From TrEMBL:
Protein name: Short-chain dehydrogenase
Family under the similarity heading: Belongs to the short-chain dehydrogenases/reductases (SDR) family.
UniProt keyword Oxidoreductase present: yes
Keyword check for GTP-binding: no
Coiled coil: none
Domain of life: Bacteria
Upper lineage: Bacteria, Thermotogati, Deinococcota, Deinococci, Deinococcales
Gene3D superfamilies according to UniProt: NAD(P)-binding Rossmann-like Domain
Keywords recorded for this protein, A-Z: Oxidoreductase
């Protein structure tokens, strides 16, 4: 299969790209740090790997990525919208805050828009979106906005496409050990666990998978007792200021 994965220069994306190549797929990888693809390029060669340098906040670069991928390996069978960034508090004073929405949500929507015509014509295809538990539990304002948005997009698109032969899956991880969380002192799962899940989804698509599964308890608590989340946040704020 021809699989396009964004944000494959580190973390979940890189390890998933390796696993896909190892499984014998043709893979297009994209990110800004092109030099990070050197190892994959020397291991798998141009027959299996296309590496594209792209800033996915920019529409023309998204379009270019899609056209380069299609002209190299043919129509895309699977799109994995993985690229993402998070930002700390103070988004309203951060001039680059909108990058979070542009990359985490809008780039995924635009790439889906580009791959869908071929998928629908061929009556087959799979779009896998990498969301987050932050798409269930509001934690970081714009990051949660992007992941709630991506979750809504993914679940609704899946329904829109029921019966078309095109599948849509959402992966919602809790904390994963990557550059994104390097400063967080919390329990984390290795990114390989998410890669394994993505490979399983290729065989058996699912609407959404929360990984690790114990985050389902947190999500249920948030839904039933949202005030408890407020209490925890307030308590942390008071400890930080005391
Ligand atoms: N780590 C976690 O705990 C966690 C939890 C839940 C969900 N997630 C989600 O998992 C996905 C992967 O994140 P990760 O944890 O693997 O973090 P990561 O190691 O920081 O990877 C982020 C990837 O996104 C790419 N990226 C960032 N800005 C980009 C841009 N403007 N254009 C193109 N690519 C860009 C980065 O590549 P370049 O910098 O080279 O462009 C990198 O390859 C994200 O969607 C994230 O929200 C992560």
């Amino acid at each position: 299969m021809h699989i396009l994965i964004t944000g494959a220069s580190s973390g979940i994306g890189l390890i998933t790209a390796e696993a896909l190549l190892e499984a014998g797929h043709q893979v297009t990888v994209a990110a800004r740090r092109y030099d990070r693809f050197a190892n994959l390029q020397s291991m798998y060669g141009p027959e299996f790997l296309l590496a594209v340098k792209a800033d996915l906040r920019v529409d023309t670069e998204l379009d270019n990525l899609f056209h380069e991928a299609k002209s190299t390996f043919g129509p895309i069978d699977v799109l994995i919208n993985n690229a993402g960034v998070s930002r700390g508090p103070g988004w309203h004073q951060d001039g680059r805050a909108m990058d979070v929405l542009q990359l985490n949500l809008m780039a995924a929507v635009r790439l889906s828009q580009l791959v869908l015509p071929d998928m629908l014509e061929r009556k087959q295809g799979h779009i896998i979106n990498i969301g987050s538990v932050a798409g269930h539990v509001p934690v970081s304002t714009l990051y949660s906005a992007s992941k709630f948005g991506l979750r809504g997009f993914s679940l609704a698109l899946r329904r829109e496409l029921l019966g078309s032969g095109v599948h849509v899956s959402l992966v919602s991880p809790g904390f994963v050990e990557t550059d994104m969380t390097s400063k967080r002192k919390v329990p984390k799962i290795p990114p390989g666990k998410v890669a394994e899940l993505i490979l399983r989804l290729l065989k058996r698509p699912k609407a959404e998978v929360i990984i690790p599964a114990y985050y389902k308890i947190l999500i249920a608590l948030e839904r039933i007792f949202p005030g408890f989340g407020d209490f925890l946040v307030r308590r942390r704020q008071m400890l930080e200021t005391s």
